[in-house]
Structure formats: C-alpha cells, structure tokens
Amino acid sequence: MKLRNLTLRRLLCTFLALVPVVTPAGAAVLPAPTITSSATSFSASFVPTRLFDNLETTEYASATLGAGVAFSTTAGTWIQMDFGAPVTMDRMLLMTRNNAVDAIGNYRLILSNDATFDATDSVFTMSGAGTTLAAPVKAFTQTTARYARWEVATSTGTSQNLGGAEMRFLNATAGSALITPVTAYNSATQFNASYARANAVNGNAGRGGNLEYACASLGAGMFVDFDMGSVVPVNGFDFFDRIPNVDRTTAFSLIFDDDSSTFASPVATLNFSPGSLVWGYTQAFAPVNARYVRLDATATTGATNNSGIQEIMFYRDSNVNAPLVSNTAATSIAANSATVGGSITRV
Q: Which of 139, 184, 162 has its CA nearest to residue 40?
C-alpha cells in the first residue's frame, strides 16, 4: 500500500484522536447510591453517608457492633443502599477506617433487584480488607441490580467500631475490558520509597505509604509513564487522585505512544479536568491504539504540591468485531512515498 507523506499508523491514530470524547461508555465509577438503612452509628459524626463524601478524614463507624451473620438487621455492621435504578457493576472498593484496631477481615456484598436481601440474591464475600485507609479493589462476577447491601462478615481487630472511610462501585461497561497488568515504569521523582510509582497500579486505591504514589513536591511537574504490555485500543480510565485537598491534580493530559517508551512519537494527546472535589473520576473516549501512556499533570492545587495517584485503571475496547490495523515499519522510503506493511487483526 502506498501513502504519500503519511504512514498508515499515524493516519489511523490521528483520526481516532479527533473523534469526540464520550462518557461513560467505556469505564465507570458508579454514582453514589442512597443509603436507606444501616447498623446504628457510633455517633452523629460517624454516619454511613460519610462513605461517599470524598473525604478520608470522615468515616462511618458502627456503635461497637462488630461482625454479624448474613442478612441480619439486628446485629453486626451493615448498610443497605438503593441506586435508584438497576446498575451493572463488577468491582468495589472499601477504604478502611484510619486505624489498625477497628479491623475488618472479610465483608460481603449482596446485590438484589428488590429491597429485601436474602440467600436468593447474588452474594459475594471479599477477603483481605486491610487497615488504616487501605482500599483494595475487589472484583466479582458482573451483576446488574438496583439494591446493594454491605455487611461485615469477620473482624480481626481489638475494637468493634467497624466501618470505613470511603466506598465506591465500578464497572467495565459493554465493549470494554480492564487492561491488566499495567506497569508504571517511569515517573517524576518519588516523595520517598514508600510512595513509589508502582503504587499507582497496585490494585489498591488506599491512602498512605506503600499504598499510593506521590511526587516530591513537584506539583504540576508530576507525571507517570505506564506500559499496557502490548499495543491495545485504550478507551477509558478510572482515576483515583490523592484524596487530601492539599495534593490534588485538577487537570492532566494523557499522552499515547504505540512504539516509544519515551514518547518520542506520540500518536494522540487527550486532556482532562477532574477538579479537586470528587474522588473517583471516570472518562471514556474513542479507542487510541497505544502501548505506552503518560499521565502528565497540567494543574494542581494545595499547599504541599505532593501530587500523585492513589490508583488508576485503564480500559480497552474488547469488541472482537472491530478490527484494528497493526503495522510493520515503513520500507522503500522515497521523497514523497513509502511502502507500509500492515495487517488487520482482532484485538
């Protein structure tokens, strides 16, 4: 195939980058549900709505109720939620309370299409909740339901005021799939070894050392480079910023490259503005065929400028009926033409 002054790879990726951004087709952090009932709160300062207030400094805690049996509304720590209409989800995260004594071992998520929860519903048990603002992302079978119940199954600490700081529900929507594994291979200088770049894609959206990435007071100079492992049609992400308001990234660019880990020949750049108020920012866009993605901060806010990432998850187009062009290097290069090798592959 002959192309004048362009390679097929650049033409395709330029076209895809110009397609308007649409959300939330490729990825989703679900909107917060309404809490309909819960175990008794420790006090008026520890009510369950704290789980969705975008702050790690406020928490839900039960009144020393510990773990309980499934479906009980008279014992244990639990909350019941209504999304207002059926929603589809395949993952959740619970950011644990900021201490090591009110420790949850396992918890259950129960999904129902009516407001009554029982053994006929979809029940998922999550292990390894962690402590002290850990927020491991827990996957389960993709399920559609309107109502959800969260309950503590086991307790591993010495105090029973169980609960959490934040909670989120996620989904890879139809035609998209989570990209895994993703490697963070380069970044702006790390705050210290505990705030390593690898923490940005460690499957844990938690807050603190060994859980998140933070730069060394570089503010908008923060960046992280990610390797998808191979060229894939990237079409969205879920971004969990550093949750304290002193270290927020309010705007950033994603720079895509299909063959250069140093972004010598980027194929697309997309700009995003999550702001500083919401924790859990999701975006979808027309697929960009790339292996390497740089998150490059363009605006930050806060007093300390230790901007970074608690967790980012990338998605890819999984539609096997949507072929993409995979190119080899150009040959027979002349003044105004080149021969471009390529084949149609399903990704």
A: 162
Which residues lie below 8 Å from residue 26, measured CB to CB, with a gap of 6+?
Answer: 172, 173, 175, 176, 235, 236, 284, 285, 315, 317
76/65 Cα distance (integer angstroms): 5
pLDDT score of 114 more than 60: yes
pLDDT digits (tens, 9 = 90+) for 178-202: 999 999 999 999 999 999 999 999 9
The closest alpha carbon to 65, from 50, 52, 76, belongs to: 76
Q: Helix or strand or coil: residue 264?
A: coil
Q: Which residue has the tokens 């705030």?
A: 195
φ and ψ of 198, to 5 deg: -60, -25
Residues 26-71: tens digit of each pLDDT: 459 999 999 999 999 999 999 999 999 999 999 999 999 999 999 9
Handedness of CA 176, 315, 54, 100 (dihedral sign): positive
* Pairing relationship of beta strands 308-309 and 281-301 according to DSSP bridges: unpaired
Report which secondary-structure segment, H or E, holds 331. strand 324-331
Residue 319: the pLDDT is 84
Beta-ladder partners of 197 = none
